[in-house]
Amino acid sequence: MSDFNLGRRRIMQVVGAGMLLPGLAPAVIASVKDRPQLTDGVQSGDLLGDKAMVWSRTDRPARMVVEWDTRSVFSNPRRFVSALADAGCDFTACVELSGLPADQAIFYRVHFEDAQSGVASEPWFGHLRSVPQQRRDIRFVWSGDTAGQGFGINPEIGGMRIYEAMRLRLPDFFIHSGDTIYADGPIPAQIATESGRIWCNITTEAKSKVAESLAEFRGNYRYNLLDDNLRRFNAEVPQIWQWDDHEVTNNWSPGKQLDERYRSKDIHSLVGRARQAWLEYAPVRRQRADQGGRIYRQLSYGPMLDVFVLDMRSYRGPNDDNLGASKAFLGREQLAWLKRELENSKAQWKVIAADMPIGLGVPDGEVSPGLARWEAIANGDPGPAQGREREIAELLGHLRARQVHNTVWLTADVHYCAAHHYHPDRAAFQDFEPFWEFVAGPLNAGSFGPNVLDKTFGPRVVFEKAPAVQNSSPFAGFQFFGEVNIDGQSGEMGVVLRDLDGVSVFEQKLQPV
Predict the structure, then answer these.
(1) What CATH number is attached to the domain comprising 104?
(2) Of 105, 130, 155, which residue constitutes the final position of a domain?
(3) 170, 262, 285, 389: most buried, per Cβ within 10 A?
(4) DSSP structure class, residue 267
(5) Residue 29's pLDDT band (boundaries 50, 70, 90)?
(6) What is the pLDDT of residues 288-322, one digit of tens each?
């Protein structure tokens, strides 16, 4: 797949632990205690054309300096400098690298320079492979749900080990399908699990309660970055981030009633603080739309693949019975964008990265006694499309009418893994071409499922793997990620669902039309 070999990757991380490579000298020589510190490693993300984003964080007002080269000795580095990282952005910085040659190994090193003294930190190293312009093999991974249900970083089992399992697959990039944090899920020191075994967590003050303040939301991201596996993964695998509900609070939508744990009951203010923290910590390219807060976007990865990153949270209407007339889920503007960009895509495969599944019922209590409230698209009624389902029906009908082929949906959210095949012959709504949806997760959280399928779009469970005991701990092994392999010659797509140790539990081959 990639020209990076595992040995080189490990060497780079040893170098990144603090050695200075040729050509990198601190702006001012100073003792370690006087230098800015890189507190949370580095990340890259949102590869697009000849560009890539690089993120890091420091401990004081400073500017991030990123240098990249196609050789690990940095004989001809190109230099990029961030805006000032200060308390207003929690000392995070993100810069866009440009001019990257196509389909090349790109090595980068990051340091910070103190805003007043010019003293430089020691460097941290990372690498990525730039976007190809020609057909070649592609491998990427996806999953969701990090540090949920109180299951945080457990040093007794080596931390969040699934990130190491994904890293060892040598993917070109990773899609985080949402629930990048659990802002509403405190991390206790210990949890008694389903087997009676005690789960032991690293704890922090920010994770001692639900996140309400901006500082507490930021602290949720910093908690995850304490994990060695995650920091190593971040330095080696470019990322595409989505968000879902737990970046704010469970099952949030407009009108969400916050429980007694929250001092303020204003969901809109809570969402604003949560979005700011997400944007500060994600290695994403800021967009001008929605006051710079838009999350949905398209990322093209050469002639073989386009990725359409959805936001199924920001534009929805309130969670309710999800019946009757069309109700907002993607929202009209995002839906129009998705229809247009899918139709215009020239890529062989069009991956729709969704933060929630289409056909699985995801309950959210009751509207009234006996009348279910629904969190996702499905409404438990197997008949014609109603409520939020109507947006999906409109999209699927458009794709059929415009002959848009080779779409695949990837998602997480429900804390188990599954493969669903949708076909109009089994459906109440039939104006669409058959397609696949693959579900992965969780990364490091409680395991649940399986959920009940809604038959409106004719889904069939081809495979699912879920625990017998709900909210099973990671000890039980029901932690999953998905892997996609695209053959550069034949165009065949292979989808693999893998467990905590990277072992395949299901594989499906898809042929392009």
Answers:
(1) 2.60.40.380
(2) 130
(3) 389
(4) H
(5) low
(6) 888 888 999 999 999 999 999 999 999 999 999 99
